[in-house]
Design brief:
Blueprint lengths: L11 E6 L6 H16 L4 E2 L5 E2 L1 E5 L5 E4 L14 E8 L4 E6 L7 H10 L5 E6 L1 H7 L15 H10 L6 E3 L6 E6 L2 H12 L3
Parallel strand pairs: 1-7
Antiparallel strand pairs: 2-3, 4-5, 4-8, 5-6, 6-7, 8-10, 9-10
Length: 198
């Protein structure tokens, strides 16, 4: 895979480096689901240290809590490894976040799902080459010309996330798969059930 741009923030980031209100229940739920995906290698880091995969939940309206940039290397996360995305603008490719870490480089993709589907309360982005190969075009797939971290990718995700099948294959982001659902457990199970088809 070409990882030249993997793990790097491409959008314009306005980061307020300070803590935000984050309940223990939300934190434990996020970490529990992330741990299952980490153990399957769906979230993690490549041998060169570049991390991949992230997890988020809707906070209020279109705000969301997401695992931070460059956290794929960590097996266990603390609250400090999460950020709150308070605002975003897909047209301007900009994100405003609060936290002790920067929001994930995939924040715009998560934002696109929350923005386009009010029934979604959790989004997970994973990497898996064989799953990506197996389900390219089988599940709703973004245009291969829309690259990771671009407004074009976000617009493609917005277009596809209005369905309720819960899976989007990122055609222009090799290995990239997005799962989404009404809650975190449902979304995690969607991804794990897909993994179990191998």
């Amino acid at each position: 895979m070409d990882k030249a741009n993997e793990g790097y923030i491409k959008f314009n980031l306005n980061w307020e480096e300070k803590p935000f209100d984050f309940t223990d229940n939300d934190f434990l739920s996020l970490n529990s689901c992330r741990q299952k995906l980490f153990e399957l290698g769906l979230i993690g880091a490549y041998p060169d240290g570049i991390g991949y995969g992230n997890i988020s939940i809707r906070y209020k309206k279109n705000k969301f809590i997401i695992s931070g940039s460059e956290t794929g290397n960590f097996k266990n996360l603390s609250k400090d490894h999460y950020a709150l995305v308070e605002d975003y603008n897909i047209n301007d490719n900009s994100v405003h976040c609060v936290g002790l870490t920067k929001a994930s480089s995939e924040s715009m993709s998560h934002a696109a799902v929350y923005d386009s589907n009010p029934n979604v309360n959790a989004v997970i982005h994973v990497h898996h080459k064989k799953l990506w190969d197996n389900y390219l075009i089988v599940f709703p797939t973004t245009d291969s010309k829309a690259e990771f971290g671009t407004p074009e990718m976000a617009f493609e995700i917005s277009r596809l996330a209005t369905s309720n099948n819960g899976i989007i294959i990122m055609g222009g982001h090799k290995e990239g798969i997005i799962g989404y659902g009404e809650n975190l457990n449902e979304t995690t199970n969607i991804i794990i059930n897909l993994y179990n088809t191998l």
